[in-house]
Amino acid sequence: MKKKSVPIALVVLTCCFSMGMGTCAGTGGTGGTPGGATTMSAAEMQLAMDALTAINAHRTGKGLAALTWHAVGAQVAFNHCLAMESGSFFEHVNPTTGTDPATRALNAGIMHDPQGSIDPTSGNPFVGENLFMTTDGAATGQNATDAWVGSPGHHTQIDAPLPVTGAQTMPPWTHCGIGVRKTGNTSWWTAMFFRNPN
Predict the structure, then answer these.
(1) Residues in Cβ contact with 195 at an 8 Å cutoff, skipping those fewer than 6 apart
(2) Residues 52-68: pLDDT tens digits?
């Protein structure tokens, strides 16, 4: 039986702006911390770092600068993975709290150079976010990256600022924070992209 892997990508201002990628199935959620987890385990951190390595290998193969790890962004990303796990949802916007990626970043004190990509209503900068969920217990960072590269709305985050056919061109990200939550054979992945964050 084929294992299910689902990627999803979005660029968020203050409202949910879908790039038309896949289907998000949400049923609500509490945003709690399953099993009392507050930080990634060593194994989860290794998966996150492997994903960044795969992203950067893809970028440098296209002549783009490697993205720098952003630890605070990774914690924000991991917290969203925990929320998706405990709330049984797979979306960029937490259906219980209503927080989107940009709000979660701002709540964590992350400010960054939006390079002119600002929501005129709120003043919040663009934040790139890719999500991936799989029930393949052997999934790797390369698998997550391959899934993202395989669809335009995810690919554009990884290739920014190069254009990707079928997707909006993103700002030239400089940093990436990745959170991974793995329970049994199921894993949730959140990658957040920023430009010159504090």
Answers:
(1) 112, 113, 114, 115, 125, 171, 172, 173, 174, 175
(2) 999 999 999 999 999 99
